[in-house]
Amino acid sequence: MLKLPIRDRDGNVVGEAELASSIFESKIVESLVHQAVTLHLAKGRGGNASTKTRKEVRGGGIKPWRQKGTGRARAGSIRSPLWKGGGVVFGPHPRDFSFDMPKKARRLALKSVLTMKAKDDKIILVKEFAMAAPKTKEAASILSKVGAPKRVTVVVGADDMTVQKSMRNLPNVKSIEASQLNVYDALNNEALLITETALAKITEVLS
Question: Which of 6, 35, 56, 165 could be stapled to 15 by a disulfide with Cβ–Cβ 3.0 to 4.6 Å?
């Protein structure tokens, strides 16, 4: 079983934690990691290009002229695609790029990333931040003392809103709750910084 030191907010080693082998020493499946990252990015895509069909264009509820006797071609609406100001035929519409991925596959992908981080010694364990109020300067000082790199993902417990508010103004630092940890945020960094309560939550969810 893999063991990592636990540091306090001053960077001093205050204990040791055993990482669950079923999570941090699992089989690495790169294809599932790729699929999970693609899914995360696809959910963030927005199909912005949009046009209106004849039923969506405002107006055109009345027949412009009678059917017969005027000498003009019959028309039922001034919002026909043939008319200026009418609807668009076969125009672009916003589409949903997201797709589904089985829950077990998502979990295995996350385990794969956590295993890679553990093997590369890219996981930093911190006992707690213990911040009384949101302070960006204090958060930056703690990250520096515990040896966190410039680009880091901080995983905290559910009640660490003070820490999350302190981290959000720091460039290249992403703070996320343990219950919301995903493959993309776990992978898109130089290291993972995990608090003791967050580690317990990750172990509980993924075990």
Answer: 6
